[in-house]
Amino acid sequence: MTTLLLISGSTRAGSTNSAALHTVADLLGEEADCVAYQGLAQLPHFNPDDDHDPLPAEVARLRTLIAEAGAVLFCTPEYAGDLPGSFKNLLDWTVGGSETSGKPSGWINVSSAPTGAAGAHRALRTVLTYTDARVVDEACVDIPVPRSAIDPATGRVSDPAVRDAMAAAARRLLAAV
């Protein structure tokens, strides 16, 4: 079974981005082994002087999860027209390793803002391309998810059409493995 690593670019409790990824994990059920990376806020600030063995523990854990995954699915908000700083920090830690090289990668953009988080996803594509990740265009989708579409009891996306679209994108990513 393929491991699908799910990485949210948000540190916010109740994040729509994280809710979308948890929903994907639920929808894929036994089609993939979905692993959600939960250490974004614990990553140290990137410093090239520290990008060598032994790596900081959380960086080593992140790189191991990426290496062991068959594919990586991201879901990130936009902050001030670009990637949130903590998420960019995560991506910076991937530059010095080779774990993303050739790794099928995609994203679900849940922004319902007028600009659709275009700046963040343009930057994400740039970094993933720089690290030699294999961006699977069919798995890079814009699926607006307003906060009202999150079921407060489950923390999951409740709209059936949105859920279907997210599952389809994740399945296209898995098919690229």
From TrEMBL:
InterPro entries: Flavoprotein-like_sf, FMN_Rdtase-like_dom, NAD(P)H-dep_reductase. Residues 3-140 form the NADPH-dependent FMN reductase-like domain. GO terms for cellular component: cytosol. It comes from the Bacteria. SUPFAM superfamilies: Flavoproteins. GO terms for molecular function: FMN binding; oxidoreductase activity. This is NAD(P)H-dependent FMN reductase. It comes from Actinacidiphila rubida. The lineage of its organism: Bacteria, Bacillati, Actinomycetota, Actinomycetes, Kitasatosporales.
